[in-house]
Design goal:
Layout lengths: L15 H20 L1 E12 L9 E11 L2 E10 L4 E15 L1
Antiparallel strand pairs: 1-4, 2-3, 3-4
């Protein structure tokens, strides 16, 4: 994602809440890709490692680590354009019966 002014806090870098929302969406896509099912977030944990400035490109690299019945454990690295890690997200999702 391109980090725009509307994504930033008053100090000019990406707001932590925006990083959480971006991570949650990327993690949910990983769950859908692995299971073919829609899901809801049960738990989301963020670890912030570096700032991301306005105008920067940020990528999420999610992958499923465990599928245990209807619970799916997933993690993601949020990578800046220079290859540095901006944050890490870990989550547990619950899949829904309805397929996407």
């Amino acid at each position: 994602m391109w980090v725009l002014d509307r994504h930033c806090n008053g100090m000019g870098f990406l707001h932590g809440g925006m990083i959480c929302a971006f991570s949650d969406s990327a993690l949910a896509w990983a769950v859908w890709s692995a299971t073919g099912k829609m899901s809801v977030t049960l738990k989301l944990t963020m670890e912030f490692m570096d700032i991301v400035r306005e105008g920067s490109w940020l990528e999420a690299h999610p992958h499923v680590t465990l599928i245990d019945g209807d619970h799916v454990h997933v993690t993601a690295r949020l990578v800046k354009e220079d290859g540095g890690i901006a944050a890490r997200a870990d989550a547990i999702f619950r899949t829904l019966r309805r397929k996407a």
